[in-house]
Design brief:
The protein has 602 residues and is α+β, with helices and mostly antiparallel strands. It has 16 helices and 21 strands. Strands 3-2-1-6-5-4 form a six-stranded antiparallel sheet, with helices on both faces.
Amino acid sequence: MSNSDRQSDGEIEIRLQKRSAELEKANQVLHAEILERKQEKHIINRYKNVLEGINRIFGSVVKAETEEDLGNACISVAMEISGSQLGFVGELGSDGLMHDIAIRYTGWDQCTMYDRTGPRLPLENSVLRGLYGSVVDSGKGFFTNEPASHPDSIDLPQDNPPLKSFLGVPLIKNGKTVGVLAVANREGGYSCEQQEDLEAVAPAVVHVLQRKREENKREQAEKTFQTSESRYRSLYENSLDGILLTRPDGTILSANPQACHMFGMTEDEIIRAGREGIVVKDEKLAAALEDRELNGWMRAELTHRRKDGSTFVAEVTSHLFADADGSIMTSMIVRDVTERKQMEEALREKEERFTAFMDNSPAVAWMKDEQGRHVYMNKSCENRFNVRLVDWMGKTDFEMWPLNVAEQFRENDRAVLKGDQTIEVVEETPNPEGGSTFWWNFKFPFMDASDKKYVGGIGIDITERKQAEEALRLSNIYNRSLIEASLDPLVTIRPDGKITDVNSATEQVTGYSRNELIGTDFSDYFTEPEKACAGYQTVFTDGKVWDYPLEIQHKDGHITPVLYNASVYRDENGEVIGVFAAARDITERKKAEEALKKYMII
C-alpha cells in the first residue's frame, strides 16, 4: 500500500471517529431531550391528575349528602394521586382531640365507608399522638417509608392494617392547622412528588369541607326557620287569643282568625278600622300607650268594641320591635277576659256570702294548716276570744293557749289529719275572768286547690248545757239518795210493764239484784201476776191507784204482803212515760189484825 493510500485511510478513520463523536453527542442530546420530555410529560400528568382530582373534590360537594360522604370522596382522590391503599381525613376539635371525618382502606369493601361500629384508625376522638400528631404539631407535611422506626410512631389499635409507609399533610385554614389529610401503604414508598401532590390537594379539601359545613348550617338554619315559621304560623292561626300586627300609630297590618272572631269582623275590616275602630279611647288606653313607649312593652285591661257596637274588656299585651328593615312595629295579643271577669265577680260574691255567713254565725269557726298554724277565723271567734285574725294568723295554739289546752287541741287536730275524717269532740278553754267555756267542736280535714291539707273547725258553746247536765247529775244523785234511803220498795215501770229502775228495798224484798230486775215484767214477782198486771194498767188508765193489795214473792219463796200506791210520771212535753209505784210492807199490820181477830173471838 502506497503512502498516499495509507494517508487516505487515516483521514477516513479520523473522519469516522469525528463523525462517531458527533453522533454520540447528538445521541446524548436526543436522549436528554427524550428524558426531559418524559419528565415534562410526567409532571404534566401529575398536574393533570392533581387538577382532575381537585375538580372531582369540588364536584363532590354537590353530590355528597353528608360531611362523611365528602370526606370519603376527598380520601379517594388522595389515594388515587398518591397510589395509596389507605386514606384518612380528620379535623382538630376545640377539645384538642382528633375527630375523624372519614377513613378508607382498600382491604375493606371498595368505595364504601368502614363500619362505624367496628374499629377505626385512628380511634375516634383520639389524642394527638403518633404520626398524625406529628403533622399537627409541626404544621408541615412529611413522609416516611419506615413508619415503625419513626420516632413519633406508636402502636396501632388491634385489627387495624399495618403501616408500611406513611404520608401526611396538614389541613390549614387562615394560617392555622385545623386537621390532617393522610395516606399510607404506597407500593414502593413515598417521595417528595407525592407529598407535593397531596399538599396541592389539601387546600381544596379544606375549602370543600368548610363549604359543606356552611351548606349544612345553612340548610339546618333554613329547616329551623321553616319549622319555626310553620310553628308560629300555626300558633298565629290557631291561637285562642287575638293577635294583631300593628304600627305604633295604630295602623293594623294583619289579624289572626281569633281576632276576627273576637271583633266579629273580617281581617280587611279590622285593618280598615285601625286601633281607633276596635279600642275604646279612654284614660286606660292613653296610659298603656305611654307605658309601651317608655318601656317597650305594656300590659293592660282595655275596653274593645265589636262590629255590632257592643264592648268587652280584654287583657292586652303589646311589644315594640324592629322588622328586617329596621322599621318599628308593634305586636298585640288580645285576650277576652269577659268570662274571667264574670267568674271573678261570681267568686267575689261567693266569698262575700261565705264571709257574711261565717261572720254572722253564732258558732265559732277556724282553719289551721298541717303544722297547726291559724289561717282563718270568723268574727264570732274573734269576738268570743277578744282577738283579731291578724294577731293569730300564722301562730299555733301553743303561742295562744296554756300548754295543757294547746296539747289537747293539737292531739285532736292530729287525729283528724291521721284518720282523714270528721270528729266530734268537747274541748275546754279558760276564760280571762276565770272559769271555763266548753265547746262542742266538729273538726274536719280538707284540701285546697294545690292539695295542701288543712284542719277546719266549727264550735258551739255548750257551757250552759254542761252546767245543766251537771245540775241534773247532782239532782239525780240527790234523788237517788232519797230513793235509796226509803225503807219501802220503790219501782218505775214502762207502759209495757217492764221494770226500768228499783231501789235497794225492792232488791231485798224480791231477792233479786237491780240489774236482774231491770227489763223484766213487773207482775212476775207477785203471787198473783194477773192482779199485779191489772193494777199497773189501772194506773196508766186512771193516772193512779192507792192501797192496792198484792203479795210479793221472794226468790226463796217467802211472801211479803204489801199495799201499792202508784201514779204516772210524764216527760217535759206532758207525755206519760211510766209509772212510779211504792209498796208498803203490811206484814206487821197483818199480824196485828190477826191478833185482834183472835182477841175478839175470845
